[in-house]
Design brief:
Elements: E1 2-7, H1 14-27, E2 31-36, H2 50-61, E3 67-69, H3 72-75, H4 82-93, E4 99-104, H5 105-108, E5 125-130, H6 141-150, E6 151-152, H7 156-159, E7 166-170, H8 178-186, H9 197-205
Parallel strand pairs: 1-2, 1-4, 2-3, 4-5, 5-7, 6-7
Helix pairs in contact: 2-9
Length: about 210
């Protein structure tokens, strides 16, 4: 079973690593792949190059043996559509491999705005990360219907099928965001508690987010 964590990683931070580590421990993935987006559809394009963002991911995950970087969205021209990446992964990994797209509950709430969103469960599972004790999840009718039809409470069921299920997983997330880090770095605020030291050194070396 493979987990996929997508995002701009602009820059990658301890919140990303904490989330992936907790999901790894809880769900026992063979590997978790960090998949940086080249040109995101629903966000402004990052001003930091894809090469820099990929290099920062590589530095951040070097001490995690089950974490990998997947650069297929950086290597592909045009916008980074999740459906294209998942279909490409499915061809690579075969029809029997369980592929889990890891996503926060806030982003999942907007799933019906994604390109060909209603085809995604044909190719993968969704692991939706929810903060413990947070308010009830408020999803629109389309997303709510998708969850009702496909939700499972049994994490083991993800391993027993290649795609098609939605698992809501509670994880205590770190209160860190890439936006916050960019603001801190621009104002020269200490970010040593928010990012791996290797990533901070890389950012300083290349004078990013100044």
């Amino acid at each position: 079973m493979i987990g996929i964590l997508g995002g701009t990683f602009n820059p990658i931070h301890n919140g990303h690593l904490h989330l992936a580590e907790r999901l790894q421990q809880t769900l026992d993935f063979e590997a978790i792949r960090f998949m940086p987006a080249a040109i995101p559809v629903l966000k402004d394009a990052p001003i930091v190059s894809v090469e820099h963002r990929a290099n920062m991911v590589k530095l951040a995950i070097v001490d995690y043996p089950t974490f990998q970087i997947d650069t297929r969205e950086l290597d592909r021209a045009g916008h980074s559509y999740t459906i294209d990446s998942i279909i490409s992964l499915r061809k690579e990994l075969g029809e029997k491999m369980s592929i889990c797209w890891l996503i926060g509950s806030d982003a999942f709430a907007k799933l019906n705005t994604w390109h060909r969103w209603n085809e995604l469960l044909n190719h993968c599972h969704f692991v939706v990360v929810k903060r413990p004790l947070c308010e009830e999840l408020n999803w629109n009718a389309e997303v709510e219907s998708l969850v009702k039809k496909n939700q499972t409470n049994d994490a083991n069921s993800l391993k027993n099928s290649a795609s098609g299920k939605v698992l809501i997983q509670e994880i205590e997330a770190l209160d860190i965001s890439s936006t916050q880090i960019r603001q801190h770095m621009a104002s020269k605020t200490n970010v040593s508690d928010e990012m791996p030291s290797s990533v901070i050194k890389y950012i300083q070396q290349h004078q990013l987010y100044q």
